[in-house]
Amino acid sequence: MNTAAIYRKEAWYDLISVWRTPGFVIPSLAFPTVFYLFFGVVFNSGAASAYMLVTYGCFGIMGPAMFNFAMNIASDRAHGWLTLKRLSPMPAAAYLLAKFTTSLVFALLIIVALFSIAAVFADVRLHSGQWLLLALVLLPGTTPFALIGLILGLTLSDKAAPGVVNLIYLPMALLSGLWLPIHIMPTLLQQASWIWPSYHLSQIGLKIIAMDQGHALWLHLSCLLVSSLLLALLAAWSFTRMTGAKV
Amino acid sequence: MNILPLQVNGLSKRYAANTVLAGVDLTLAAGEVLCILGPNGAGKTTLISIILGLLKADSGEVRLFGQLQAGISRSNALRQKLGVMMQIGSLSANLTVFEQCDLFSSYYANGYSAAELVALAGLEQHSKQRFGRLSGGQKQRLLFALALAAKPQLVFLDEPTLGMDVAARRSLWQQIRQLKQQGVAVVLTTHYLEEAEQLADRILVLDQGVIVAGGSPAELKALTQYKVISCHSVLDNAALLALPGVQQLNRDNNHIILHSCQPEQTVKALLLADESLHQLEVLPVALEQAFLQLTQASQTTEEQAA
């Protein structure tokens, strides 16, 4: 046995298994790109297109992370596949990292698609450093959403998972200002948006193009870090609860 | 002394007011096939799940290769020796037979290669087919092969032939016999009596969480051939004990209770010897209702299969 080979194969097969699910691939890639084409390119231009590139970028990378974790883990649990893997010498980390890699690949595809649309059709002009920085913010930005998906996947049935993910994903996107700019929302909602990791991620992204609300970077970073940490603890707790009580 | 692959002592499990397992003990040696037989709901899957550490027992202990089972999730060495086929087992529907085997074989240090696993499953013709498109029997064969991926020393097969046709079942039996010859310890649960008789060195009959009988297939079969004959008769003890097949006699005045291993012959002789005999009843031994249910159930299955 070669531990590196386990990690590599686990990641590769998770990715191709997901890639062969059109019901996952098409909505994951189509929703952010079509929305961005529609709202960011057809109905807006200039600064608004750049702003929406960031917010739809956040929206885009959240979906695959949450759905891949929640739906596939719930389904692996329901079908006993996870049980077999847990009884095998596969390290649990290989399984989780595989799912995370898949989320990153989808995030990268979405970033490339949105950046291309922005540059080609919306005439968004950023320095090369800004493009790169934005991509480097969005990619690890999938972490808290992957963790939310993981918690849901560990606790929900395979039938309930997709619905519940939508129930969290869509309102969270709206309330963090990913669809409508946060500054046009009522003050109460603006204040409440601080609880959403997606708000902080989008603000960090917007900072790169100097269109954020002007809060300090370290505030957003610490909020993202703390929320990810809390989610990780909750995920670990869900995992012990599952292994303790359920087949 | 060799370390036993599996030792279970006094395992008990309750769900609320429901006793699922009550003080189960068992041991398993290398090269031995232990069959846990019982009707649906007898506690077989619960027992396996506890042994594998998927469920917690209320009391009792499980040792795998001498090691307390509590370590199973942490002990990579233990999991390298273990093969498992659970009753609910479905793989990612989108991966092909070869891909599943490739993934699973990568987990084990000294296991089979992906190609060998495909061959073990007998699915060479279907190696590029996705799991979701295999037939029920083919899926079972693949899951069985994956249970052997480790070249394990201890294998758990929970109802492995469920949903297989007669031919597939027989070929799987053949593979289980080969495992035994290789010195693998096998725990097999089933509710087919025939399967247990064909494969097991020892059978444990589990009913409502209790091991109600245990022994070799032949011993168990003999037990079920015992019948209790109850009647009112004027014959004396010596005459009764001389009847064919009678093993044991209890009497309360004229009320006679005989234990017989050849009930038909006993009854025939009894009726000839005592014309006044009345209130004749032939009853199963108060052994285990479960085992008899199984006998009947498996007979019906065989008739259907024939």
From TrEMBL, chain A:
Localization terms from the record: Membrane
The UniProt record lists the keyword Transmembrane: yes
Family the entry assigns: Belongs to the ABC-2 integral membrane protein family.
Keywords tagged on the record: Membrane, Transmembrane, Transmembrane helix
Descriptive protein name: ABC transporter permease
Domain of life: Bacteria
Signal peptide stretch: none
Residue ranges constituting the ABC-2 type transporter transmembrane domain according to the UniProt record: 12-203
Gene Ontology terms, MF aspect: ABC-type transporter activity
Keyword Membrane: yes
Source species: Rheinheimera lutimaris
Membrane topology of this protein: Multi-pass membrane protein
Any Gene Ontology CC annotation: ATP-binding cassette (ABC) transporter complex
Annotated transmembrane regions: 21-43, 49-71, 92-119, 131-152, 164-184, 217-239
From TrEMBL, chain B:
SMART domains referenced in this protein's UniProt entry, alphabetically: AAA
Domain of life assignment: Bacteria
Pfam families (UniProt xref): ABC_tran
Transmembrane segments: none
Keywords for this protein: ATP-binding, Nucleotide-binding, Transport
Domain (ABC transporter): residue spans on this chain: 6-233
UniProt GO MF annotations: ATP binding; ATP hydrolysis activity
InterPro entries: AAA+_ATPase, ABC_transporter-like_ATP-bd, ABC_transporter-like_CS, ABC_transporter_ATP-binding, P-loop_NTPase
SUPFAM superfamilies in alphabetical order: P-loop containing nucleoside triphosphate hydrolases
PANTHER family, per the entry: ABC TRANSPORTER ATP-BINDING PROTEIN
Protein name: ABC transporter ATP-binding protein
Organism: Rheinheimera lutimaris
